[in-house]
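sorry to bug you again but im stuck and you know this stuff better than me. what follows is a protein written twice so to speak, once as letters and once as structure tokens for the fold. id like you to explain what the token line says about the fold, in plain words if possible. anything you notice is useful, everything is just below.
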Amino acid sequence: MVYAYSQHIYSSREIEKACKLNLAFIYLLRGEKAPDHNTIARFRKYHLESCAEGLLTQLVELLAASNEIQFENLFIDGTKIEANANKYSFVWRKVVEKNELKLQDKAAQYLKEELGYRKLPDYITSEYLQSVLSDLILIADSHKTNFVYGTGKRKSQIQKQIEAIGSLKDRQHNYEEARSTFKGRNSFSKTDKDATFMHMKEDYMRNGQLKPGYNIQVAVESEYMGSAGDFIRRKVINCSPLGHQFRILFSNGFSSHSGRSSMHM
């Protein structure tokens, strides 16, 4: 898989084809049968992420054993890569926090005034609203409430309460998911939640438009890439001089498994 990616081969079908026809791939298989493209796709989906770091660490150790790198000098550089995501699918943390506060006040007011709740938690979660909704549904079932829809239909009080709490619960759940997705960032894209909106070097429209992308930092020694990371926090990106912050952030690529670290950065 690593060799295929290094040769710009990413399709599972193309990797399968290379394993059957390409001598370099056949050599790496060591006599094993070429894997099916479905097997490659399943491995990439379920197992590659968990073993990639260990595999790349083994490559670094192999370079060290061959005396190609000495763990003495570590050079760091980076670039911004635009993500393949919709430019207008942004979600901003400040907007989410502002709207969630409004929703908390609205939910608390409704629970107190409409449903008669006296004691409420300081933070009303979607799980709490789900428990309230479940209780209302049980009450509606016990009274054999007939739910009606459409124009000209008069809804019962319990149906209005169920629909209101259901709407509040869904909105609160969306805000909770958004907050867990930010992970210290100020924004993310709905179509690529790992991408963060930032200024790019290539600004074709010359309007300073923010675009979804990644800020990739790479640590190199003796022209070999030893570690890489996607940096999303501006404080880390702009830290100068390099040194302590990057030493902490990049040390795993060199020392987490080997116990060694570069001396100079």
The first strand starts at residue 75 and ends at 82. Residues 126 and 169 are 5 Å apart (CA to CA). The chain is about 50% helix and 15% strand. Residues 234-254 have pLDDT under 50 and may be disordered.
